[in-house]
Amino acid sequence: MHSLEQLKQSLEGAGQAHILQFWPELSDLERDAFLQDLSQLDMTRLREHCEGAARAAAAPSGSLDQHLEPVPPASIGSVRKSDSKALTEWEHEGLLQISQNRVGVLLLAGGQGTRLNVQYPKGMYNVGLPSSKTLYQIQAERIHKIQQLTDRKYGSKSTVPWYIMTSEFTLAPTEKFFKENHYFGLEPSDIVMFEQRMIPAVTFDGKVILQGKGKIAMAPDGNGGLYQALVDNKVLEDMKKRGVEYLHVYCVDNILVKMADPVFVGFCVSKGADCGAKVVEKACPAEAVGVVCRVRGVSQVVEYSEIQQETAELRGAGGELVYNAGNICNHFFTRAFLQDVAETFEGQLKQHVALKKVPYVDSCGNQVKPTKPNGIKMEKFVFDVFPFSRNFVAFEVVREDEFSPLKNADGAATDTPTTARNSLLTQHCRWATAAGAALCDEHGNTLPAASASAGDSAPVQCEISPLVSYFGEGLEMLKGRTLQTPLILDEEKAKELQAQ
Ligand SMILES: CC(=O)N[C@H]1[C@@H](OP(=O)(O)O)O[C@H](CO)[C@@H](O)[C@@H]1O
Fold it and tell me: Which pTM does this prediction carry?
């Protein structure tokens, strides 16, 4: 650890002497903790970071809009437009890769859940399903199921390792939650948690913000902090050791996410892609999703916060949105590509500026909760590596089956616990009905199939455990049955029905 004198000098050199302004007021304990935090800062980097943030906020990089063009539809693979033969082939390819232990999943779970307004990791959120399962549990069970489906098909004993990128905010509670829940039945050694870096929030004039008298305001470095974190935590070495060649990266909040989706993996592998992204058709021009498009001829994502409204609203001759390939934060990477990024491109990743309200102590030592943005957070985006890819592919999937993110607290118009819960229940009603079941209410009245597939209204309470079905398969035991709702079709209930 540095001595106080050394630290003072180097902070002065970095233009950040104010950080120690309240030092005389701190207790011994607070001083120790603060000194410990500060001695981890690289002062040259700190100076660059602060100056860079202030510069970037003062002169935002010009809009990219004039350089955009859509990805030609012909170069986007599509679930809707492909015949069942192609889909089956991709699925087989994906399952084959899984059976050879060549596929891993990586969860981006470092976010603070600010919009959702929770103080704990988003993955621990219970959206109010009949089973009360959290997002983490649903995801764990899907991993379990895809391993099982693979093993049944190929007679293998497959493992899909689960890499979980957390942050200083989410690591400890996530670890505790997994432990308390016995890793949801997965092998603990196949779950690898690691932490992304945190970087200081900075004022508009380039000064680190003090969150407390002995604490600087830190924020995770964006989901694109992944690439630095892969290096810091030797994750690529771990993948290599396990023989994992392909990684499905996804963000924590999509309740419909198909972990290690064999169709997507199989599609990407059979196209020889090193990098891929799932997209859905955008619901409306203002939907808060990035768009996969080309910028100066190169495929990449332009984030919703960085596209101009006129561009987002552009429509083609048939009335369709010109930029309608909505990014759902489900990416495919080969290990070789990630290695290239780690070795060559990480330093070139773009830094995005976010202006945020950051609570701080003012120069008189008062705690202030700002009402308008006062700080700059710099973030990297996970998709900003796409331009470095040699063979990028996009794959369009069906929204109702694959995308319903949890971003906001109930009361907001979109992407809430209610919309997430409804999407899942509606999907499960569709699966049950397609398998030949009729659903009835507690009085025995048959519920019309239409209400089982209604969009926003409260759907029929039919929840199918991922341990029973991964994407609607294996529900033959429901054929010809009338089932009373609320229904939780878990493994036990499924066995019971099978035996009848
Ligand atoms: C940096 C990044 O990955 N942004 C993603 C991510 O948005 P957030 O608002 O950061 O959750 O998820 C969206 C899909 O839910 C996707 O459309 C968007 O491009």
Answer: 0.95
Q: How far is the CA of 473 from the centre of ligand 1 (A)?
A: 29
- The type of residue at 25 is E
Query: 93-125, pLDDT tens digit by residue?
Result: 999 999 999 999 999 999 988 899 999 999 999
The DSSP annotation for 62-121 comes to: PP-GGGEEEPPGGGEEETTTS-HHHHHHHHHHHHHHHHTT-EEEEEE-----TTTT-SS-
Buried b (16+ CB within 10 A) or exposed e, 479-495: eeeeeebebbbbeebbe
> Could you tell me if 438 and 483 are in contact, meaning their C-beta atoms sit under 8 angstroms apart?
yes
The answer, yes or no, to whether any atom of ligand 1 lies below 6 A from the CB of 249, is no
Is this prediction's ipTM beyond 0.95? yes
Q: Which amino acid is at 21?
A: Q
Name the residue at shortest CA distance from atom 17 of ligand 1.
289
What residue ranges in 256-308 does DSSP mark as E strands?
275-281, 291-295, 298-302
Spatial CA neighbour of 393 closest among 304, 282, 291, 269? 269
Q: Is residue 223 in contact with ligand 1, taking CB distance under 6 Å?
A: yes
Closest C-alpha residue for ligand 1 atom 12: 329
Tell me how far the alpha carbon of residue 71 lies from the centroid of ligand 1, in angstroms.
19
Q: How far apart are CA 165 and CA 232, in angstroms?
A: 12
Q: Is 268 in the pocket of ligand 1 (CB under 6 A)?
A: no
Question: Which tokens go with 242?
Answer: 């396990």
Please report, as a single letter, which amino acid is at residue 41. L
Residue 382 to residue 346: CA distance in whole angstroms = 11
The span from the CA of 382 to the CA of 276, in Å, is 12
What is the maximum span of the chain, computed from C-alpha positions, in angstroms? 79
**121-138 confidence digits (pLDDT tens):** 999 999 999 999 999 999
Q: What is the DSSP letter of 296?
A: T
**CA 330 to ligand 1 centroid distance, Å:** 10
Helix axis angle, 135-154 to 84-99, nearest 10°: 90
Structure tokens at 196: 């992304």
Q: Which two tokens stand for residue 9?
A: 């000098």
**Atom 15 of ligand 1, residue of closest alpha carbon:** 328
Report which of 274, 256, 248, 300 is spatially closest to residue 430, judged by C-alpha positions: 256
- DSSP 3-state assignment of 393? strand
- Closest atom, ligand 1, to C-alpha of 303: 19
d(CA 447, CA 483): 10
Nearest CA to ligand 1 atom 14: 328
